[in-house]
Amino acid sequence: MSITSPTADWLPQTKPGPAPPQRFSTSYAKICFGESIMMRRGWGFRFMAAVSTPERQQWAVETMAIEPDDRLLEIGCGRGVAVSLICQRLTTGKVTAIDRSATMVRLASERNAAHVAAGKVEFRAVDLDSADLPEKSFDKIFAVNVSFFWLGTKPSQIDRVKRLLVPGGTLYVFNEPPTPATANAIGDKAEAVLTSHGFTTLRHKTVSRRGLPLTCVAAVLDRDSS
pLDDT-derived band of residue 222, with 50, 70 and 90 as boundaries? Predict the structure, then answer.
């Protein structure tokens, strides 16, 4: 089931254009989004540039309704923009942010130096399978543009998420698809993948930002799957 905002039905359709040079593509991905994002060539790059990083991360953080004592895990933290916004809302809570790219972790740590010093965030250059994280220790786990949540290509990592969530904890899967139709399709796929791993969808929502869609699937574990 998909829930879209009233503006999503009439979003403008952009005709695909020529692909930018591969060197630009790689640089853009590493600098702006980290290595966890599923990048596309051509008009997909113009889409992602059109919705600014702070704007889409702000929506993601607001969607998660951060509590002051929340314990959160971000999978694929990139430059740590979402972490910055989350830490502003925490008092006794803490974020653990992981990314496979050591460069992104360094940049995120520099951006959030004050929050690191205050003990509100810990950054690690590691993938989810290798991360040394205690089970049932996170109230909320989230990821932005991490494709295995809807492609289902890394079942071991989804199972790891299950073990890391506290009972009643929530997983948030955010995505920036190129069109509303794609948003609904990706959301439906994410629901199907998560359901097959014992999750129940709480929310599947798509909103419009600057005429382009952002989507979120929020899910909790079934009681007998935790």
Answer: low
